[in-house]
Amino acid sequence: LSLVLSLGATKDMGKMLGGDEEKDPDAAKKEEERQEALRQEEEERKAKYAKMEAEREVMRQGIRDKYGIKKKEEKEAEAQAALEANAEGSLTRPKKAIPPGCGEEEEEEEESILDTVIKYLPGPLQDMFKK
């Protein structure tokens, strides 16, 4: 019995060490089929998740329509369009005359209010605002 076990064990050890391995004539075909099965599973998985995402997007759009929410891309597009419209308008439309000193006084007033508020803040906070 031990003789049979030792013969079987040495045969397996030889295979493990890269010795006489039995060549499978269909090994390449089996490997190709396995690779094809993996590709097919991956495609099915991608299709499944694409379908799930499409269903979610339909639900999201329903919620956006119900509550009047816009997608991020839509907001950016509208903001860009508004900027372009403003730029276009400023090029074609004559500027309105601003009475002298109107804008300047307001800015000075805001600065003086800010300086007044900073005076009453503790020292570390004053340092933060001065930077």
TrEMBL record:
What Gene3D superfamilies does the record point to? Single Helix bin
Q: Tell me a GO cellular component.
A: perikaryon
**Where is the sequence biased in composition, kind Basic and acidic residues?**
12-50
**Mind listing the GO molecular function terms for this protein?**
syntaxin binding
What InterPro entries does the annotation carry?
Synaphin
Principal place of residence: cytoplasm
For this UniProt record, give its keywords in alphabetical order, as a comma-separated list.
Coiled coil, Cytoplasm, Exocytosis, Neurotransmitter transport, Synapse, Transport
Look up keyword Cell cycle and say if it applies: no
Q: What domain of life?
A: Eukaryota
- A GO BP annotation: synaptic vesicle exocytosis
Q: Which CDD domains match?
A: Complexin_NTD_CPLX_I_II (cd22808)
Q: Where in the cell is it found?
A: Cytoplasm, Cytosol; Perikaryon; Presynapse
Region annotated Disordered sits at 1-50, 78-111
A Pfam family hit: Synaphin
Q: Where is the composition biased (Low complexity)?
A: 79-88
Indicate the family of this protein: Belongs to the complexin/synaphin family.
Q: What does the annotation say about its assembly with partners? A: Binds to the SNARE core complex containing SNAP25, VAMP2 and STX1A.
Q: What is this protein called?
A: Complexin-1
Name of the encoding gene: Cplx1
